[in-house]
Specification:
By secondary structure, this protein is mainly beta. It contains one helix and 13 strands; from the N terminus they run αβββββββββββββ.
């Protein structure tokens, strides 16, 4: 009987260690030698990048006099409050950039808001470089110049909306000739009116890295 009791006690000790290891794993503590644990798959890519700081103003882009805003959706006539971590200044694939995070709804609605609207007729080229997703020039994500119009109730600002190739292993640059390039879903450039900013849209949880946003 004593041998059985001792064997049960040993098993309890082993299971206790495994249980402890599983609990500690979430805190970044290694499991004891000889034991393994599985991390729960949260569906994210978990790409390696270097955190530098909070992205502000003209950080890692060629726009001047802008504010990078992620806690409001400016596509609506009255910006909607949304929950989102602040965009990060980061280094990804060896380049300084802005890491744009998804919000609480699992979407990206970050805007580079101009300090004052600019005439649409004053620009003809829109350029940006992106990384972080593996997509081939489709509607998975897009970036739009938002017009300073007055949308009908429940509608969104008119926009000149575009997309581009993106990769997890290299930076890809897209150059849009505004007067001639076709916009997504008919949201093409028109020289009439003004732009209030550049807003990124993505209906997924993974972040997007972006740099060298330029209009001229």
């Amino acid at each position: 009987m004593k041998k059985i009791v001792m064997a049960l006690a040993s098993l309890a000790l082993v299971f206790g260690i495994v249980s402890c290891a599983s609990t500690k794993a979430d805190d970044g503590i290694d499991a004891p030698e000889g034991f393994e644990f599985e991390q729960e798959d949260d569906g994210l890519l978990h790409l390696d990048y270097k955190y530098i700081g909070t992205a502000k103003g003209t950080t890692a882009n060629k726009l001047k006099n802008v504010s990078i805003i992620s806690n409001k959706d400016y596509s609506k006539a009255v910006p909607l409050d949304i929950y989102c971590d602040e965009p990060e200044e980061a280094e990804f694939l060896g380049k300084k950039c802005v890491k744009v995070n998804s919000n609480g709804d699992g979407n990206i609605r970050t805007i580079w808001l101009f300090d004052k609207p600019i005439p649409a007729s004053s620009i003809s080229t829109f350029k940006f470089s992106v990384a972080g997703l593996d997509v081939d020039n489709n509607w998975t994500w897009n970036i739009a110049l938002l017009y300073n119009d007055t949308p009908a109730e429940g509608a969104e600002h008119a926009s000149a909306m575009y997309t581009g190739n993106m990769s997890t292993t290299e930076w890809t640059e897209t150059v849009i000739d505004l007067p001639t390039n076709e916009g997504l879903w008919g949201n093409a450039y028109k020289p009439e009116g003004e732009f209030i900013g550049i807003q990124m849209f993505y209906g997924g949880r993974d972040p997007i890295f972006i740099k060298d946003i330029e209009i001229k």
